[in-house]
Amino acid sequence: MVLPRIFHYDVDERISLIQTITGKKPADIVISNVNLVLAPTGEILDNASIIISGKRIAGAGKYSELHRFIGKNTLVIDGENNYAMPGFIDPHIHIESSLLTPHGFAKLALKHGTTTVVADPHEIGNVLGSRGVEIFIDEARNLPLKILIDIPSCVPATDPSYGLETTANIIGVDEVEKLAALEGTIGLGEVMDFISILNANKAVLEKIRVAHRYGLIVNGHAPLLRGAELDAYIDAGIWSDHESTIYEEALEKARKGMYVFIREGSAWKDLKALLPLIKDHSIDHRFLSFASDDINVVDLMEKGHMDRIINIAIEYGVDPVKAIQLATIGPATRIHLEDHVGVVGPARLADIVLSKNIEYIKPHTVIASGEIIYYKGESRKTFNNYKYPEEALNTVKLAKTPGPQEFIPRINNREGIVEVNIIGVTPGSALTKHVVEELAVKDYKVLADPSRDIIYAAVIDRHKASGSMGKGFIKGLGFKAGAIAQTIAHDTHNLIVAGNNPEDMSRAVKRIVEIQGGIVVVDKGKIIGELPLRLAGLMSIEEPETVYEKYKKITKELMERYGLEFESFFMTLALVALPVIPEIRLTDKGLVNVREAKLMPLINK
């Protein structure tokens, strides 16, 4: 593990800390008159002060002669009896899901008190391979938000030898080793392929071995694993999990020594179900943490980040200090950085959040590594833009834009009725159902039936310009406009398009190519909403406020026109192409039977 430079300190820095707290050298910042949240012990110390020298805390507590630390250049902040707490830490997040770049995400996360995140750039890794991970690492170096990187462990999501989809890149053992040596990598990202773990697959275990050799943490993804299967998963050297949705499942993982991340993101919300884990058991707070996993730009702007999760927990009756521990000392311990972050105390990085109230956390002043980023709600930091390489901004490569008729499945029969295998979806759910329906055939074309909520769908290779396109039907999406196309299609992120009108589908795909990635909605030949996502076809390079406004505009337009909840069907459609979650999926190669890991026919003979 090679920590970013911000975590390094030499003898001169230690001398400065010692001299400051012994009154031989003035502090850079003194924060007085605060109620100090002591994350290690769960106490609150009133009338406390925090003494900062450089990027670290020289001391924190009650000092009778505060003037000893103050010189002519010392910035003195009156805490006004506010609550001072450690900067918040998110131990597991996919920044790409916010639709923001690391730069844009950092601005919003810091405003809400988050000072450290562990990001798994799994999505950009699928599009750009290890180069995408390197771009994230490079951009993070100059941001005040400490972004630590988990190396994606499952790129692509399926074994290429299965031939289920056209993938862009592979992050194998060699790539993991190369990335592990870079400054800023802290772990191996969630090991989603638990089936391979249970089968003792050497290729997957070799990635874990490399991670351990470099001193990296290894993060898990073990939904519903219990008993001996859970033991086997832990035996592989995987010590954390964020996929628990049932209290008993999470408790078993904690009892077996796993670090349990309680997930409360924009799409997956598990906090309520796992509340007894916090309230009814004396689980060491170092083994429990909150995590967001995925959070969108609207929630970030309107509700916050880790402060949002803390406040939800408090609303559910969790003691505020306990909730704060799960966003500070808990995750700090898991990532083995409790000597640096997660505590307002001597020698730690000066990551500090001030909030007037502890019953509802609303950060107004945020200090990260001794630098004031927000003061009383106002930004004090200029965030420099990052220049992305052209290869990261031009990732939509199609052999050609399919014409309208190419989206309609064709068979040898001119007229009649056929039995079709259809992807059944429920907006807001990641699962699909294998639905069999009869559809009409006209002029050799199998027709959608919007009256039964059965619409056309297609996935097109956008990485290699191969012309590969899989066609099918989706039932249950509730989409009433002409077409929606998007380059967010987990995990490979090929181009997915769905709709009632093939002409609109072709128009939407054409526009996606023009803007080089994003989301486009078309109806009756007119573009009624679009959100360009130029970076890898996943993230906007615009400022977060602009992305937020465009996202809200699409949401408003679709709700007013069609009564559609955009977030729900956008995320549902994005998962239609993920061939690792049952029951059936659609890729550029066609329909996939997930349980059998093989392609299946669209039409039943």
Automatic annotation (TrEMBL):
<dbReference type="GO" id="GO:0000034">
    <property type="term" value="F:adenine deaminase activity"/>
</dbReference>
<keyword id="KW-0378">Hydrolase</keyword>
<dbReference type="GO" id="GO:0006146">
    <property type="term" value="P:adenine catabolic process"/>
</dbReference>
<dbReference type="Pfam" id="PF01979">
    <property type="entry name" value="Amidohydro_1"/>
</dbReference>
<dbReference type="InterPro" id="IPR032466">
    <property type="entry name" value="Metal_Hydrolase"/>
</dbReference>
<dbReference type="InterPro" id="IPR011059">
    <property type="entry name" value="Metal-dep_hydrolase_composite"/>
</dbReference>
<protein>
    <recommendedName>
        <fullName>Adenine deaminase</fullName>
        <ecNumber>3.5.4.2</ecNumber>
    </recommendedName>
</protein>
<dbReference type="InterPro" id="IPR026912">
    <property type="entry name" value="Adenine_deam_C"/>
</dbReference>
<dbReference type="InterPro" id="IPR006679">
    <property type="entry name" value="Adenine_deam"/>
</dbReference>
<feature type="domain" description="Amidohydrolase-related">
    <location>
        <begin position="83"/>
        <end position="372"/>
    </location>
</feature>
<comment type="similarity">
    <text>Belongs to the metallo-dependent hydrolases superfamily. Adenine deaminase family.</text>
</comment>
<feature type="domain" description="Adenine deaminase C-terminal">
    <location>
        <begin position="430"/>
        <end position="597"/>
    </location>
</feature>
<dbReference type="Pfam" id="PF13382">
    <property type="entry name" value="Adenine_deam_C"/>
</dbReference>
<keyword id="KW-0464">Manganese</keyword>
<dbReference type="InterPro" id="IPR006680">
    <property type="entry name" value="Amidohydro-rel"/>
</dbReference>
